[in-house]
Amino acid sequence: xxxxxxxxxxxxxxxxxxxxxxxxxxxxxxxxxxxxxxxxxxxxxxxxxxxxxxxxxxxxxxxxxxxxxxxxxxxxxxxxxxxxxxxxxxxxxxxxxxxxxxxxxxxxxxxxxxxxxxxxxxx
Length: 123
Fold this sequence. Notes:
Layout: H1 14-22, E1 26-33, E2 36-45, E3 50-57, H2 66-80, E4 86-88, H3 95-103
Parallel strand pairs: 3-4
Antiparallel strand pairs: 1-2, 2-3
């Protein structure tokens, strides 16, 4: 596994993922090696800004450029929609993701405070 928080009864449920795929605002991409999924990216957009919501590569396949290729393809698909900004949110404990996005040219903003309101802890 990619060692990311997993919410199978909420946002990561099969039903929620199915609904997201059916909308035209989500981009799901996977990287395969030898018929096995080794990485994935979920990107979305609101028509004005694109978001890399989740990028994951299983540990034994990291440092091979897989995340970079997945992000690049997600960005390209977002740009083709006429959206010129792509952003991501990274939790403070996830330093490896921060390093990936910094290497890919993303700018870290320490001046932004993120708020959420959740229906329950599974979402």
